[in-house]
Design goal:
The chain has 14 helices and ten strands. The strands form two sheets. A seven-stranded mixed sheet has the order 6-5-4-7-8-10-9, sandwiched between helices.
């Protein structure tokens, strides 16, 4: 990651190892982002501003399946949309650019830093966007208050932002030692420490089995309970590694699925997704399109089941008979996109 500065004091973040490309809509893949350094510093309390190497943390979460999202949502001038997971604004920015800024949008995110970065990134369209810090589980209430019922487009990108995985304070990754937190929203009360150290055996096994889809869930839960108290991500990763010593595939870290399971439990991700999707289908206008990008089988299963149910009931059309996935080229450029699946449904009546 290299740093360049122009005469106006604007900081450019450029990764020289990434290739630039233009998509079929004339949009440029945003591996070069332009932001006022001082404003970004305020959002992150200057914690990533100590040296230029740490600025890698500020590389934006690259919008996954960008071309496909824009093509299938097919935004038209003066339409209204809800980005239920605006993150740092990549998809929303592309949709505004596609319509030359002629959209009205409700941008929702439960993380205040992501929301502030999105506001900064989308500042030239600010007059057309309502930003709300909230969980999409409460989508219908937020939409009603903001006057965004009967909208033409709704988007869910269920991925965790790159900077959140890199933030040592959140403890989402076993790559760096950090406290057991894993809350994606500052409003959250339950932490990973509570799940790891306070859950009884049955509940801990349930979390690892259902949300991590781990075959060795009993053994892993047993190792965790016997190792209590566990305070850090490194400690937890080491315990899981010992539990799976002879069973884990060497291509992925043995703690990957357990960390996913605990994060899902802490943030109540699956129940929030079910609530959010049901609300989204209700508030779509006739002709409206709902797009969802999922990143693991648990999420995709929920989306697939609900979309198929709506199709059978009538009044809805699947715009993706099978989920769309990133091309090999996109995965090469953005490895974190490799597991993404996009499903889109249209409301007919």
């Amino acid at each position: 990651m290299t740093e360049n500065k122009n005469k106006n004091g604007v900081l450019y973040f450029l990764n020289p190892n990434k290739k630039f490309r233009s998509d079929s809509f004339g949009l440029t893949a945003r591996f070069l982002d332009i932001l006022p350094k001082e404003e970004v510093g305020k959002i992150f309390n200057n914690q990533y501003m100590e040296n230029k190497n740490s600025l890698a943390h500020l590389e934006f979460h690259k919008p996954v399946l960008l071309n496909e999202v824009v093509s299938l949502l097919a935004p038209q001038a003066n339409e209204r949309l809800i980005d239920a997971t605006v993150g740092t604004g990549g998809h929303l920015l592309a949709l505004f650019e596609k319509t030359a800024g002629r959209l009205k949008a409700l941008a929702i995110d439960k993380n205040s830093r992501s929301l502030k970065l999105a506001q900064l990134r989308l500042s030239r369209f600010a007059k057309n966007i309502v930003f709300v810090r909230e969980d999409f589980a409460n989508l219908k209430t937020v939409a009603r208050r903001a006057g965004f019922l009967e909208v033409e487009m709704i988007l869910f990108d269920l991925g965790v932002a790159s900077w959140q995985f890199q933030d040592e304070n959140l403890g989402l990754s076993f790559a760096k030692d950090a406290p057991l937190d894993m809350r994606l929203s500052e409003k959250g009360s339950k932490t990973a420490f509570v799940v790891v150290n306070n859950y009884n055996r049955a509940d801990l096994e349930r979390v690892i089995r259902e949300y991590g889809e781990e075959k060795e869930y009993k053994k892993i839960a047993d190792f965790i309970i016997r190792a209590r108290p566990i305070y850090s991500t490194k400690e937890l990763a080491d315990v899981v590694t010992k539990a799976k010593k002879e069973t884990f595939p060497k291509k992925i870290h043995p703690a990957t699925k357990v960390f996913q399971a605990i994060r899902i439990e802490v943030n109540e991700e699956l129940s929030a997704l079910e609530e959010g999707l049901k609300a989204a289908l209700e508030i779509l206008a006739t002709g409206g399109r709902l797009a969802v990008i999922s990143y693991h089988s648990l999420e995709d299963r929920i989306v697939k089941r609900l979309f198929l149910t709506k199709k059978r009931e009538g009044g809805f059309l699947l715009l993706t008979k099978k989920p769309l996935q990133p091309t090999p080229q996109e995965v090469y450029i953005n490895p974190s996109s490799r597991s993404a699946k996009l499903r889109v449904i249209k409301k007919l009546t």
